[in-house]
């Protein structure tokens, strides 16, 4: 019997399919990060002239 990597053991202990795990945890973290980034950009002046993140740098972020 071959040993499983730690991440496989952790996912198996959650007792949920990989797709559901990705949707709930990874998708939720991605959405929260996107909202935090948008809030940071617009609270520091948006994408306009004189803002902290201007033009392409703000879009790239």
Shape: elongated
Please mark out the parts with pLDDT under 50 across 5 or more consecutive residues, or reply none.
Answer: none
Question: What's the main sheet like?
Answer: none
Structural class: mainly alpha
Helix content: 55-70%
Domain unit count: 1
Count the DSSP helices: 3
The rounded distance between the terminal residues' Cα atoms is 45 Å
Mean pLDDT: 87
The Rg value, from CA coordinates, equals 19 Å
Helix and strand run: HHH
Strand tally is 0
Beta-strand fraction estimate? under 5%
Outline of this structure?
The protein has one domain (6-60). Helix content is 67%, strand content 0%.
Structure description:
The chain is mainly alpha-helical and 61 residues long. The chain has one domain (6-60). It is built from three helices and no strands. The chain has helices at residues 6-14, 18-43, 55-60. The model has no long low-confidence stretch (mean pLDDT 87).
Features:
single chain; 61 residues; mainly alpha
Fold blueprint:
Layout: H1 6-14, H2 18-43, H3 55-60
């Amino acid at each position: 019997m071959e040993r499983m990597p730690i991440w496989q053991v952790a996912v198996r202990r959650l007792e949920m399919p990989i797709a559901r795990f990705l949707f709930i945890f990874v998708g939720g973290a991605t959405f929260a990060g996107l909202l935090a980034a948008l809030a940071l950009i617009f609270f520091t002046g948006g994408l306009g002239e004189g803002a902290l993140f201007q033009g392409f740098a703000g879009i790239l972020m």
